[in-house]
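ASSEMBLY PREDICTION REQUEST
Request ID: AP-0331
Submitted by: J.K., bench scientist
Number of chains: two
Total residues: 533
Priority: normal
Notes: Please return the full assembly, not individual chains.
Input sequences:
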Amino acid sequence: MIHGDYSRHTGKILLAGLLSILLSGCSSLGVKPWERGTLARPEMALDSQPVASAMDDHIYFSKEASSGGRSFGGGGCGCN
Amino acid sequence: MAVAASGAAVVAVTDSSAVPRAACTPLRRSLGLATAALLAGGGASAGWLPDMQGWQTSAGLLLYSEVDRVRALEPVISARKALDTDEFLSLKLTVDTLTGASATGAVSSRLAQTFTRPSGNGRYQVGSDQTPLDDTFRDTRATINANWERPVARDLTLELGTALSREYDYRSLGVSAGLARDVNEGNTTVSGALSLGLDTGSPVGGEPIPFAAMQAAGSEQLRQGSGSDKQVVDVILGVTQIINRHSLFQVNYSFSNSDGYLTDPYKFISVVDPLTGDPVFDIAEQPDLPTIAYENRPDSRTKHSLYAHYKTAIDDKVLDGSYRFLVDDWGISSHTLDVRFRLPAERGSYWQPHLRWYQQSAADFYTPFYVGNDRPAAGDSARYGSADYRLGELTGLTVGLEYGRRKAGSGWSIAAEYYLQSGAEPAGKFGSLNEQTLFPDITVFMLRFIRDF
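STATUS: Completed
Returned structure:
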């Protein structure tokens, strides 16, 4: 592995960022169950078009050096 | 490797119109009940069709066309069935058919060049001032995904997945497991998922010896083997949070480690003359065959990424924005920004413009060409080099527009997208290379059709 220290360092920073978001008090956000009509609309799902998302992930996986992030999507081919 | 989208970060949302006030039912359950009710009333299917009652199905078709390069056709069929309350089985079949020409990594030149095909049999010619493309690119890939999702305790959901993909020169097997826990009255979902993949490649002609030269067609090529493995471990940790009645966000941290043969066996690097900048032609057996060095990449790659996704409803419109920062130990870092804006139109239809911007830095070992004796010795696996433009500094811009219609669980959409990839020309160009475009723009047109029923 090259630049192992750099990679580990960056990983710690990213993890610390995520933990700080976790600990910053998500409990102060949110709504009651009866206030969720808008959020329950199909187009408000975070991945409202999974078939399209998977197609996009595969295209960009094969054209760019980055993949993943949103999910494990992409890959399964020797194209990158 | 490929594993179906995990259960990482599935937010808990409840439709107030369907659930009593005291309940705190996650979205998973709401949609499951709605789907079951919808499909229960479905008519009898024709006798010659498989009984799909109880399945929510999507069919998609992607047409992908790069100007002068690869064309692809990708049909997808996906089905999801509620097995029980909050328990789902999802199956998906994807087929990719690819044809066209693929960049080899060699530089364009004022001189015509002839290359040997990967099989070692046959050759292809590249005219002067043209980017060398292997015009025999052809493959068909089939992928099957299966996912099973079920609650294992109060507010805790388990998702198991597997993916199997097969193409002419590559196989991939992946398994995944994820847990998602709803907390804070269902306003927060914390999730974690692990995926393991095993890929096996069997490239046409075998894996070249690193930095070895291409031999004349019909001669024995310099190969080190004919089968290679790659293991991939992915971890995603995520939080999804409802902000208010109209907005929610998701943050994911992802770790990915690949070990094994990560080199592209079909890519190589030109060797140019230190005085003229022209490719070196010193193979007596075939004078129009330039001297090249097959690429070699490290056998390990570790990536970290942070992904943030925000979604908000503005009256009946929906704004969807995401950003991803990725860094790896090959020296690549990238930024991806994606924005969609859904605008309702008449009778349940909508328009959705889409903008995506991507930028990456080059891998440390990205080498667009070697100058004379800078080329590493054949077989020197301790050195790395690749002229694959996808490892160079580049920017990608996608502009798209989708139109769709949705009514009571079924619907369709059609989207047209334009993708322009622009790379940075190498700083070290000299001599006749100054007259060449080594990183030409790549233009892609995509048309996507999806039908839900």
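REVIEWER COMMENTS: Residues 27-38+54-452 of chain B form a domain with the Porin fold (CATH 2.40.160.40).
SIGN-OFF: pending second reviewer
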